[in-house]
Input
Amino acid sequence: MAARLTRPHRDDVLIAVSGLGGGLLLWAIGLYSRTANDPITVVDARWAVLVPLVVTTACELLRRTRPRTALLVGTVAITADLVTRGNLATIVMFTDLVYAAVLYGTRASARRIVWITGLLTVIGTVVPYVAWRVPQALLIGVGVALVTVAPAATGWVVRDHRDAADAERLRAEQTALLAEMDRSQAVAAERARMARELHDMVANHLSAIAIHSTAALSIDDPGTSREALSVIRENSVEGLAEMRRLIGILRDDDGEPSAVPTLDGLTALVDGARANGLDITLDTDHGTVPAPVELAAYRIVQESLTNALKHACPGRVTVALVQQDSVLDVRVTSPYGHRDGPRAPGSGAGLVGMRERAALLGGTFEAGPDGGFWAVRATLPLTEGGSE
Output
C-alpha cells in the first residue's frame, strides 16, 4: 500500500508534462502519424487520438516506481493508438516506457523485455513480408525495432553500466572498511606492544624501589636506610633511562632504529637483580637467535626476575636458556611459599605480557607452582611464528 502512495519522481512528472504538451500541440495543428485513408486506421475521430495519449502520459508518471505496470498499460495504449490516426508523442513516450522498464525493473523482468522486443521485431519483419511479398514490408520490422528493441537495448546497456558502477562503489566501500579494520587492529597491536614494553622496562625498577623504600621506612637503622636509599636511587636512574629509551622508540625523529635488548644483556640484567637482593644462577646454552626471539626471551626473563623480587621467598633463583633443535627454551624458577618482609603489589599484567610474547612467536608459555618453586617456562620457535 505504501508503494502505491509513492509520489512520482520530479523528472517523471516533467517527462509526462512535456509529452502531453507536445502531443496536444500536434493534435491541435492536425499533425497525425497516419492519414484517415490508411488501412490500419479504424477510428477516424479526432478525439480518439487523445485517449492513448493521456493514458501513456499517466504511465510516464509510473515509469520509475511501477515500471512493469507502466509498460503493460502503455502497450495497451500504443495498440489503441495504432487503430486511430496516431500521435507521434504517444509513440515517443512508449519508447521511454520500454527504456524505463528495462532500467528500473527487476533484472529478470528486464531480460525478458529484451527478448520479447527482439521476438516482436522478428515477427514484425517476417510476417508482413511473407504476407505481402514486397520489400517495403520490411520497413514495418524496422519501425517495430525502433520503437521496442532500440529503447530496450539502450536501457540494458545503461543498466549494466549502473550495476558495474554500484559494484565498484561497493567494492571501494568494502576496501575502505577493511583498511579501517586493518588500521584499528594495527593500532591495537601497537598499543599492546607499547604496554608490554613499558611494563617490562619499568616494572623491575619500580618494584625494587617499592620494596626498599618499604624496608627503609619499617627498619629504624641508619645504615640499612642508607643502603636502601642507594638502591632506590640506582633503580630510579635506571628506570628513567629505560623510560627515555621507550620515548625514543615511540618518537624516532632521526629515522635510526632504537637499540633493543638482546640476550647479551642478560648478564647485566642478572647483576642488577642481584644488587636488589636476589641470589641468581644464570645458565645459557644457545647459538645465534633471531632478534624477535631475543627480545621476547629477554623480556620474559626480566619480568620473571621482577616477579621473584616482589613475591619470591629467600633462596636461589635459577635462570636457564637452552637451545634445542629449532626451539629456545626459557626457564626461570624461584622459591615459592610464604614470604616475610615487604612485598610489592602485583597486577597480573606481567604474566599476560609474557604469554602474549610467546604466542606472537608461535610458542608456548607456562607459569605456576612446581613443588616448592614458582616456575616460568617458555618455548620460543626459532624458525616460525610472529615477530614484535
The chain has ten helices and five strands.
